[in-house]
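Handover notes (outgoing to incoming on-call)

Open items:
1. Bacterial extracellular solute-binding family protein: sequence verified, structure written out, both below. Nothing else pending on this one.
2. Nothing else urgent.
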Amino acid sequence: MGRKLQLTMTCLLATTLILSACGSKKAEPSAPEGEFKEITVQAPDVLGIKLNDLNGGGTLGGQYAGQKIVVATRTGDFADALKNAAKYFEQASGASVEVQSFPAGTDVEKIQLDLNTGHHFDAVLMPVANVHGYAEGGLIQDLQPYVDSIASPNLDLDDFIPSLLQSYGKYKGKLVAFPYKPDSQLFFYRKDLFEDPKIKEQYKAKTGKELAVPTTVEDFLTTAEFFTQKFNPESPTKYGYSSMASKTNSRLIWQNRLAAFGGKDVDENFKPAFNNEAGLKAMETMVELRKYAPSEWLQLGWDEANALFASGEVAMMEQWPGLYSTIEGDQSKVKGKVGFGVTPGGSPTMGGWAIAMTSTTKYPEATYKFLEYVTSKDGELLKIDYTMDPTRTSNYERPEVMASNPMYPALLDSLSAAKILVDPDVPFVSSKLNDIMENAVQAVLRDFLTPQAALDEMQQEFEKEIKFAGLSQ
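Bacterial extracellular solute-binding family protein structure tokens:
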């Protein structure tokens, strides 16, 4: 696309966002007009837990009868989870809920277009980077007025994992969304090998240290070398470390170390904040890890990386939680042999989705109550069967929830420690910044650029795109 055409399209988008924001008056919370009555919601037990609060802490009593809420999201588990919760919300509120979903690859464009011009949606469930872009464009509302006036007495914002409420829910100091689906890079390791007395003895003889799950970057590198046959012929695994390193995935290797060394991608003013000692050390660590990774590392995407770990050839891996289904599959050679922890360095990269209310909703109170409902302490348990993990600390403290998934202790620790989003929190250009990071990381891993040269080039490209988006100060 030519720069002139790109500039024209960006200007049109910016104009549309401004017109959309100016042309829609945000409805102020007001008292419900419908008749309120006591309602008992018939809900199933989840994981053996009796869900007792599916009437909004007593704030839902059929008063929104005749109102229809339209929620937009991606086709699949996201839509199915919302539809499941909507059944119970409809019983409690009297409102009806329509979930409109779009396939991955078209969802972002179609939802953005409707938010700009169609105004059919009352709420959206989308990745955090998109939600914050909507906030920058004035397309979604500040939820705080509704929290202050009509919230359930059981809302308890402090119960959300703090990093999620801050990173997902807030944008420029405003509460623009509730956390819905959390995600974080996890550390997967061969628990059977780490607990093997003979291997522990060999490790101590070779390194002078006790073999333990690495928590520091230094111990991570030492352990990766020990479990790599190229450097230790007695290693039970061929490779000490692996991850996804194909283009579109490789930036995670760098991001998982960036925050560990005290860095970040951009600061609160959208200025690049990685071209420093932290960014350089993260790049250099990535280069060091290459020595302990598979020879085909740069070709490993999601399926390939997961299959290799499940084959038993790798001792340690950093990956999204979805790896669990592969390692516990019937074809896995490591089934029941894997442990879970926080990525070494203690600052994993996180993804995630949030749910927000549009600025043009016809029914702001009912819509707010739906957002509150599906993210409530009991309400969010209705989504667990749809691969949507909890976002609230109290749910991880329920023994039944913790017992349902052996990854949950590590996931809670990882979400609590995470500081950097996988998609830079820069509206309108987040995907372009991802591409810039990928190009830089690939250039370093392929020895096309030195780590410092890659950081310099990445900073220049970041500054150019952020300025082009009109966000630089």
